[in-house]
């Protein structure tokens, strides 16, 4: 995976807006000596728009017990990773997810059916803070497993011959279907189309990590793994949507203003006009669970 590691390392080290770096340092400081790395990803990375947006970070810690003062938060993070929290700093706002180094390495790889982490880190990310060279190396190793995990899962569901960008579009479409998402149809393709050259560069090295040869400049890729995989993806969809609901329930205890954020995100991505009522803020778990079936029926969440 040397070629893929080199690509991942270079991408993770690409400079970002200094405000993002300062924000990452602040988030790391919340976890003291247990903080190992902070990664920046998502729509704000793609568009470089920060003001008025919600930035996305992953905080990698050494151990959940050392990361939290409250034992129940450590237990929740271990049993149903990650924990997600809102944070503000320097006039910007963000949410950050917390994973241990061992969980990050596992969840960014093919060792899990759940798409949540490897689907996100098969996309561009930046390592905006790390405590030392060892933490940086472990983050690179984990992220380098994400793209192969994505393609390994997706290839059986794709055509026998597939254009490189359609390989990624099809793979992300599958992962979007395995979570409850508020984005409009076509969102998965737009992720690829935002920076097609990046995905072309990653195609051959990611496939090589799976033992598949691919010409970096080829118009079509021979997909020898085509056929099958439907049961695996049916299982992923069922488990993934149930996990989304379970994480939503957990977030009602860890994420202040979570119902308002949920409504904001759905309105932004699905074009809806959801209004949060006072009782939903007082009982956010009940409010979110009451809201969810209506959103699914209206097609705002899939």
Percent range for β-strand residues: 5-15%
Strand order of the main beta sheet, please? 3-4-2-1-5
What is the subunit arrangement here? single chain
**Major sheet details:** 5 strands, mixed
Query: How many individual domains?
Result: 3
Average pLDDT level? 87
Spell out the CATH superfamily of the largest domain.
Answer: Beta Polymerase, domain 2
Instruction: Please count the helical segments.
Output: 16
- CATH class category label of the largest domain: Alpha Beta
CATH topology of the largest domain: Beta Polymerase, domain 2
- What is the correct CATH architecture of the largest domain? 2-Layer Sandwich
Q: Ends: how far apart?
A: 35 Å
Total number of beta strands: 7
Structural class: alpha+beta
Order of SSEs: HHEHEHHEEHHEHHEHHHEHHHH
The geometry reads as globular
Uncertain runs with pLDDT below 50, 5 residues or more? none
State Rg.
19 Å
Helix content: 55-70%
């Amino acid at each position: 995976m040397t070629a893929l590691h080199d690509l991942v390392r270079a991408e993770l080290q690409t400079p970002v807006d200094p405000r993002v770096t300062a924000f990452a340092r602040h988030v790391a400081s919340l976890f003291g000596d247990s903080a190992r790395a902070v990664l920046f990803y998502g729509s704000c990375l793609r568009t470089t728009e920060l003001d008025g947006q919600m930035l996305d970070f992953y905080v990698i810690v050494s151990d959940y017990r050392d990361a939290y003062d409250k034992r129940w938060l450590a237990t929740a993070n271990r049993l149903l990773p990650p924990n997600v929290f809102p944070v503000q700093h320097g006039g910007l706002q963000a949410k950050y997810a917390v994973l241990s180094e061992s969980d990050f390495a596992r969840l960014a790889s093919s060792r899990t059916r759940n798409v949540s982490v490897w689907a996100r880190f098969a996309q561009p990310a930046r390592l905006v803070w790390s405590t030392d060279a060892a933490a940086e190396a472990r983050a690179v190793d984990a992220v380098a497993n994400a793209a192969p995990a994505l393609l390994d899962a997706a290839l059986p569901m794709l055509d026998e011959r597939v254009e490189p960008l359609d390989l990624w579009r099809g793979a992300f479409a599958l992962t979007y279907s395995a979570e409850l998402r508020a984005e409009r149809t076509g969102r998965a393709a737009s992720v690829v189309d935002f920076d097609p050259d990046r995905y072309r560069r990653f195609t051959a090295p990611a496939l090589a990590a799976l033992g598949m040869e691919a010409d970096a400049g080829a118009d079509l890729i021979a997909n020898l793994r085509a056929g099958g995989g439907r049961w695996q993806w049916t299982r992923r969809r069922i488990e993934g949507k149930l996990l989304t609901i379970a994480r939503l329930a957990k977030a009602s205890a860890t994420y202040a203003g979570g119902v308002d954020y949920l409504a904001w995100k759905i309105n932004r991505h699905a074009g809806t006009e959801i209004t949060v009522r006072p009782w939903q803020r007082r009982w956010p778990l009940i409010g979110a669970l009451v809201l969810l079936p209506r959103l699914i029926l209206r097609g705002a969440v899939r």
